[in-house]
Q: What sequence folds into this?
């Protein structure tokens, strides 16, 4: 008796190799095109969001501390909006603001004024259209350095 084997049809292979199937590259390109199409409408939200952030961060430290989680949620929303709106200059600085807030939320380490300074810097970068690109870069670098120093100090305390 001779052995014979049965090989079931591989439907998945047929589907994946079909000539008309979309590739990951095509899907990513299409998704990017859709994001670019809505970016201007999303960008409109940045101004009001940053204004809300400034209002919250211009209050006394005790009030900022009490609302740290809500401020952090707003900051994350701003980071997402800025990323979609292609304001990549703002995204890392907003994430740095979240790091400052995390220092308070996670370990109770509060650095007076650091959150306010970071928020004010974001406001200047977004709202002050007269700021030269070199000055914007210096401000961004200064804010990043401040946050880095405060975050390192916070980690040492925690």
A:
């Amino acid at each position: 008796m001779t052995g014979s084997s049965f090989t079931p049809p591989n439907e998945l292979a047929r589907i994946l190799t079909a000539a008309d199937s979309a590739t990951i590259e095509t899907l990513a390109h299409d998704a990017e095109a859709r994001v670019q199409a809505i970016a201007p409408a999303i960008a409109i939200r940045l101004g009001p969001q940053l204004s809300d952030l400034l209002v919250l961060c211009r209050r006394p430290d005790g009030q900022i501390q009490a609302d740290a989680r809500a401020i952090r949620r707003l900051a994350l929303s701003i980071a997402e909006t800025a990323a979609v709106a292609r304001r990549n200059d703002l995204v890392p600085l907003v994430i740095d603001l979240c790091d400052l807030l995390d220092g308070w939320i996670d370990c109770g380490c509060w650095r007076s004024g650091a959150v306010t300074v970071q928020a004010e810097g974001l406001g200047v970068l977004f709202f002050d259209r007269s700021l030269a690109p070199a000055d914007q870069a210096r401000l961004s670098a200064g804010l990043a350095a401040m946050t880095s120093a405060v975050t390192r100090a916070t980690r040492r305390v925690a």
